[in-house]
Specification:
Length: about 230
């Protein structure tokens, strides 16, 4: 049977205040047995410590550090446009899990693995990404989109067309990791005696359809993913 009967995914825009409100409302209303979020341990710790990498620190880490620094700056700029710092919806999920006293799981791929894959991107995609990133920092105020979710979906389609390699490693391969981890969480809850586990997973909007598709196709079985991350609470 489909694992979607156990897992409800909330697809969020990482910089949308509405997404933060939806996360809090859904978790408190659904009262799940566990909450999962699109973070790995390194990003979870950095977010909790409110730690930001400086350009000087990024240079010490070489190419991977510069990629990480550039991506963080892009998210910060988008956060200014939409009125919310990146990661606020993940913090909301953590707080809601704490309020209910349920375990929190980190299901995303390790950031160092992700950065290594980005560093191996074709030169054409790297150059285009650099040029587009520079464009984001131009002092242009875009205004509040009338339908942020629809605009985000269009953006994802465009991203896939322009960056086929990066789309595969940043979206599709991470979808596979997160789906495996969610299956493992469900099966581990069953092993603990929960007859019908209910898990809420908070992921980026671009990941939601792919993860749902993978969970729908996965055959229900005792399965422990090698990527599975123990609960942090």
């Amino acid at each position: 049977m489909s694992y979607l009967r156990y897992v409800k995914l909330i697809g969020t825009m990482h910089v949308s205040p509405k997404s933060r409100e939806e996360v809090i409302r859904t978790i408190l209303d659904e009262r799940p047995h566990a909450v999962a979020i699109e973070l790995d341990r390194a990003r979870f710790l950095a977010m909790n410590e409110n730690r930001k990498m400086t350009l000087e620190e990024a240079l010490r880490f070489g190419r991977k550090g510069l990629i990480n620094y550039a991506l963080a700056k892009v998210e910060e700029k988008l956060g200014e446009e939409f009125g919310m710092k990146p990661g606020e919806e993940m913090k909301a999920a953590i707080s809601a899990a704490q309020a209910l006293g349920v375990p929190l799981y980190l299901i995303d791929e390790d950031i160092n693995v992700i950065l290594s894959k980005i560093a191996a991107a074709p030169g054409r995609e790297k150059l285009l990404m650099a040029l587009e990133a520079l464009g984001i920092f131009l002092p242009v105020r875009l205004g509040e989109p009338s339908d942020p979710m629809a605009e985000y979906r269009v953006m994802m389609v465009g991203f896939k067309r322009r960056y086929p390699y990066l789309y595969r490693v940043l979206v599709e391969e991470r979808n596979e990791v997160m789906a495996r981890n969610l299956v493992s969480i469900v099966e581990n809850l069953k092993l603990r005696g929960v007859k019908r586990p209910k898990v809420i997973a908070v992921v980026g909007l671009g990941h939601k359809p792919g993860i749902e598709h993978l969970l729908d196709r996965a055959k229900e079985r005792r399965f422990l993913s090698p990527y599975w991350t123990a609960g942090v609470m």
